[in-house]
Design goal:
The protein contains ten helices and 14 strands. The protein is elongated and about 70 Å long. Helix 3 crosses helix 4, helix 3 runs parallel beside helix 10 and helix 5 packs across helix 6. The strands form three sheets. It has an eight-stranded parallel β-barrel with strand order 7-8-9-10-11-12-13-14, surrounded by five helices. It is an alpha/beta fold. The mean pLDDT is 94.
């Protein structure tokens, strides 16, 4: 249930209303917008009398919310959430470019790529240190050494770091990482999501390969319910019957998720397509559809990459693509 208050409500009466609702056993989430304040009630509202609340002179309207995700729901939070990371903001009309290799392979590799993508307009560096792979024999990442090298690249370029965390026990070694990425395979690792809800770091959650929008928003709800408001949603393609592409990029997720939720929505065209030749066109399509950002895999030597080389574009391709994305974003 949400309670929409009239403009500039009397603070004493507002405090009284909130106290009364808390006494009824509800958790209250307040969202203050430009024109209205909205109170979101979390709990069993089936027995509460809407007319009784509506009679309060500071209340403009009362609505029941049917969706199970409350904190992630735009009805609770009409204003877009904007997440500040370093000197960049994700959401709020910005187009944020997150770029870098699938996996960290060496100091020379990650620093060279970081410097290149920053020059081209990326404001966040991505790179995997811990890599969940389908095959136990595939390259699993450099682990702690990968984290160290990412931080070295951050030190040299100033770019904030986004990298994947696989287990709640890893939190201490991610202390200096700026964005904690939850991969598609871990989207419903609820113990991890609960632990991330107790941090104040931005959490980027990738949509699972066979998950609905509601599934994704419920995963975000775990983090939000824990007290961490800094959640970013990422569409990275879903599994369909098509085999030409690695996955099927669901561009409809951008306007759909933005209708359902206030959280920023970014697109990963690299994992979605699995083909570097398709990344530019899908990136531009995502920018045109209103994405808040793009996460693009960039490698300085794709044919010899230890992970996901076929879907990685070169720094030169990224440099050619970036200005087109900003132009499309400004026109959209």
């Amino acid at each position: 249930m949400i309670i929409i208050l009239k403009e500039h409500p009397d603070q004493q009466k507002l405090n009284g209303l909130v106290t009364w609702l808390k006494d009824k056993g509800f958790d209250i989430h307040s969202s203050v917008g430009a024109n209205h304040t909205i109170l979101g009630l979390v709990g069993d509202t089936s027995q509460i009398d809407i007319d009784l609340i509506s009679a309060n002179e500071i209340v403009e309207e009362v609505k029941r919310v049917q969706e199970p995700y409350k904190n992630a729901n735009r009805k609770f939070h009409p204003e877009d959430t904007v997440i500040k990371v370093g000197n960049t903001e994700i959401g709020g009309g910005n187009l944020t470019l997150i770029a870098g290799p699938c996996s960290v392979e060496s100091e020379e590799q990650i620093v060279e790529i970081a410097e290149a993508v920053k020059k081209s307009g990326a404001t966040i560096l991505r790179g995997g240190a811990f890599k969940p792979r389908t095959s136990p024999y595939a390259f699993q990442g450099m682990a702690l050494e990968g984290i160290r090298l990412l931080l070295k690249a951050k030190e040299k370029t100033g770019l904030p770091i986004c990298t994947e965390i696989m287990d709640a026990n890893q939190l201490p070694i991610f202390e200096d990482i700026d964005i904690l990425q939850v991969g598609a395979r871990n989207m419903q690792n609820f113990s991890l999501l609960k632990a991330l809800g107790k941090t104040n770091k931005p959490v980027l959650i990738k949509r699972g390969m066979a998950c609905t929008y509601q599934d994704l928003l419920m995963s975000a709800e775990y983090v939000l319910a824990g007290g961490n408001p800094n959640v970013i949603l990422c569409e990275r393609g879903i599994r369909t019957f098509e085999t030409y592409t690695r996955n099927t990029l669901d561009l409809a997720s951008i306007p759909s998720l933005k209708t359902l939720s206030h959280l920023p929505v970014i697109i990963d065209p690299s994992h979605a397509t699995g083909r570097s030749a398709l990344v530019p066109s899908m990136s531009m399509a995502a920018a045109a559809a209103g994405a808040d950002g793009l996460m693009i895999e960039v490698h300085n030597d794709p044919p010899h990459a230890k992970c996901d080389g076929p879907q990685s574009i070169t720094p030169e391709m990224f440099d050619n693509l970036a200005p087109k994305l900003f132009t499309i974003h400004n026109l959209a």
